[in-house]
Design a protein that fits this description.
Length: 406
């Protein structure tokens, strides 16, 4: 790397590193930051001054108990910037405007009968304009728009509408179309990856370096986070947890029974409909669970039977600190499922490994995917990930804006 670029990179990295320390450790003093980061006190003071000037951090005096004046400490300013997120699943579209603290400021939800681009993209565009107007009214910078969408749609144009059950999306340059409509930095990810980013930034991931995120959307997905970095895999297919085969099924399109066919909201809805229940929302599912509906309980037991061997394989290969369940499966059902899985996993473990990863429900509950999507612009703008910094520097250089964080 050239000398000028190296200086530019280190400046951006140090800015993001210090902001991340404030985010994770705050309230924290400048002296504590200098000790933990290895940066000099003058460097820390200069960068903190920049963070305060741009509104990303706030000063506070919270520590008590010592004689004299309490030290000035730093916290992230939750209202320092806003971001927009959309989660498009096969049966609904949810949009959010959030601040840096993950607080939802505005929310829209649609359940379009047709999920083709001609229906979904205008809904996104209208909501994004309303969200941007709110940010402008509040005088807050808008870091961008994040979009979570089913399937590995980093492949542009989309190779097969049938593969993802998304009629009308084949051949669409999704990233380009979204960027054109929104007019700001736009980030596209599949739903599990986006939800895992939200969990990493705001939720259980704040205290976990390595965890596996199970995405319970209409279909089933997952994302592995290692050393606080979500992994895509070589071709971007690392989140395809639902495609794991567990047997043969002549009724499936390819003759293979895959995990998402038996363990997903779509599978649960189908099973309940077979027994006369149309429970397609969280409240209806919670009511059935509270009533100990035998068909729901039987499905949860079957889901635990199918999930346990795959989670045990994850545990054997990866040994994560936790497995986090997120998205649209309601809290009582997650609690029931994880309790059943605890027993099944304990029976599978070898005697010399008496412990396993914690099974946790994600911080955002049923809004994990849209909150994760809204976190994507924050993550790209502020994370100290070297790859993200290089990508942002190149984009800024191409736009002749310079490579600094701000």
């Amino acid at each position: 790397m050239e000398s000028g670029k190296n200086h530019e990179y280190m400046q951006a990295y140090n800015q993001r590193l210090i902001l991340d320390m404030i985010r994770l450790q705050g309230p924290v003093s400048r002296a504590d930051i200098a000790r933990s980061s290895g940066l000099t006190a003058p460097t820390v003071s200069r960068i903190v001054a920049e963070l305060l000037e741009h509104g990303f951090a706030l000063e506070t005096s919270q520590r008590r108990g010592n004689l004299g004046k309490p030290p000035v400490e730093l916290v992230v300013n939750p209202d320092g910037a806003y971001a927009i997120g959309f989660n498009f699943d096969r049966d609904q579209l949810v949009g959010l405007l959030i601040n840096l603290g993950g607080e939802v400021l505005m929310r829209v939800q649609h359940e379009p009968e047709v999920g083709d681009p001609a229906t979904v993209l205008p809904l996104m565009e209208r909501a994004a304009r309303a969200f941007a107007a709110r940010a402008d009214q509040d005088g807050k910078p808008l870091l961008g728009v994040g979009v979570g969408i089913p399937g590995p749609l980093h492949i542009n144009p989309v190779p097969s509408a049938e593969l993802f059950e998304l009629p009308g999306w084949a051949g669409i340059d999704v990233q380009g179309e979204l960027s054109r409509r929104f007019g700001v930095s736009t980030y596209l990810e599949n739903n599990p990856f986006a939800a895992a980013i939200g969990e990493l930034w705001h939720g259980e991931g704040r205290s976990l370096d390595t965890f596996y995120f199970i995405f319970f959307g209409l279909y089933l997905g997952g994302c592995l986070v290692v050393n606080r970095q979500p992994l895509r895999g070589t071709g971007g297919f690392a989140a395809e947890f639902g495609t794991i085969p567990y047997g043969m099924d002549p009724a499936s399109p390819d003759g293979v029974a895959r995990l998402g066919h038996g363990v997903s909201l779509a599978a649960l809805y189908r099973e309940l409909e077979r027994h006369g229940h149309r429970a397609h929302d969280a409240l209806a599912l919670e009511a059935l669970h509270a009533a100990n509906d035998p068909h729901l309980l039987a499905w949860l037991a079957q889901a635990a039977d199918l999930l346990a061997p795959e989670l045990w394989r994850l545990e054997c290969v990866l040994d994560p600190a936790a497995i986090v369940f997120g998205e649209r499966l309601p809290a009582p059902l997650v609690a029931h499922l994880t309790e059943a899985l605890e027993g099944r996993l304990a029976a599978l473990r070898v005697k010399y490994k008496p412990y396993g990863p914690r099974l946790l429900r994600g911080w955002a509950g049923v809004d994990a995917a849209p909150l994760g999507a809204a976190t994507l612009p924050i993550y790209h703008a502020l994370s100290p990930s070297p790859a993200l910094i290089h990508r942002r520097m190149e984009g800024a250089r191409a736009a002749a804006l310079g490579g600094a964080l701000f």
